[in-house]
């Protein structure tokens, strides 16, 4: 999991206390093994709730949309939606 937390000391990250950080980083950077660990550790319900609550703000648009499709979460208006400056 070290590649997901390059700027952190892994020894100081508590998976329970820092659940939001862990979920965010693994959903964004994790490989298959790390994603399996994430879903075993927190469960599909907690990960789905995190995507619903925080995903639009904390994931890239591409990752957010991917996880919304995979977890059957309706997308919501976010910082990515709205009028564009250059409409072409």
Please provide a brief summary of the model.
With 88 residues, this protein is an all-alpha fold. It is 56% helix and 0% strand. The N and C termini lie far apart (41 Å).
Note down, in words, how this protein is organized.
It contains 3 helices and no strands. It has a domain of 58 residues. It has 88 residues and is mainly α.
Assign an overall shape.
globular
Biggest pleated-sheet summary:
none
Spans of at least 5 consecutive residues whose pLDDT stays below 50 are none
What's the total count of β strands? 0
Proportion of strand residues: under 5%
Summed over residues and divided by their number, the pLDDT gives a mean of 87
- How far the N terminus sits from the C terminus, by CA atoms, comes to 41 Å
- Our count of helices gives 3
The ordered H/E elements are HHH
Radius of gyration: 14 Å
| Structural class assignment | mainly alpha
Helix content: 55-70%
Supply database-style keywords:
about 90 residues; about 55% helix; mainly alpha; 3 helices; single chain; globular
List the helices and strands and how they pair.
Blueprint (H helix, E strand, L loop, with lengths): L18 H11 L2 H27 L2 H11 L17
Helix pairs in contact: 1-2, 2-3
